[in-house]
Amino acid sequence: MSNSIQNRYEFVYLFDVENGNPNGDPDAGNMPRIDPETSYGLVTDVCLKRKIRNYVDIVKANQPPYEIYVKEKAILNRQNEKAYINNSEIERPPSKKLPKKQEDAKKITKWMCDNFFDVRTFGAVMMTEVNCGQVRGPVQLNFARSVDPIVPMEISITRMAVTTDREAEQQSGDNRTMGRKHIVPYALYRAEGYVSAHLAAQTGFSEEDLKLLWDSLINAFEHDHSAARGKMNARKLIVFKHDSMLGNAPAHKLFDLVTIKRTTDGSSPARAFSDYNVIVDRNNVPQGVTLEDKI
Length: 295
Description:
The protein has one domain (9-150, 182-293). Helix content is 26%, strand content 32%. The chain has 8 helices and 14 strands. Strands 1, 4, 7, 8, 9, 10, 11 and 14 form an 8-stranded antiparallel β-sheet that branches. Strands 2-3 form a two-stranded antiparallel ribbon. The protein has a two-stranded antiparallel ribbon with strand order 5-6. Strand 5 (123-127) and strand 6 form a beta hairpin. The longest helix has 16 residues, at 45-60. The radius of gyration is 23 Å and the shape is flat.
């Protein structure tokens, strides 16, 4: 792995959904997540990180130094055990304990950062029975929020089959099963994120990792298509690069440079990305900050 990044970054990420459910809420019958006070749609940071992890897993085939720590059906204790197996000179302590020697504990945590992309990117709490410490990651994402309020729809669907013979007998051979599907007809979502050079130095997050992060956001939905999610696309990735590790401007001032307005009077609901105009105030980018359009 190369040296860690030397610049701070912030980014604005826009993506949309058409006739799909971008992030269902299991506590609400898998309906699209929504702010009940404003009716704006929400997509959690965990959902977006999952798509990044999945893309990296596909591209890098889960090989070090790009293994994925939190992946489908993973058993985290087994993931943690790899650090002790590959550092056999360090005696594994009792359950939930770190090695007594501080340098040994640091070595175990560093091994996890060096080998797992999502650990050195997002951080991880690895204090399970097989304790590998805790890492605060340099890359953080806010919840994505829709640009306009959304009106989720519940659609009836029909399956031309039943599960059991008993159901078939009850329907006299009609063999139909009714179901429900939740969709958002259309919504444009905005997420904002941060990349800390200071924390990157602690985890080893490198320029190669940063490029892979941008690639993951650009291609997040290309390998994630499903009937439930409908048509989802990454639309804009606007990156602010600071000339220094500590940064040259507050993050909120950079985010305020990106605004989104309707191309029409708003009397009818938006149904396409062309219904919006993304405005980037390039004339007021602070000194010491460079604006880059990745999409």
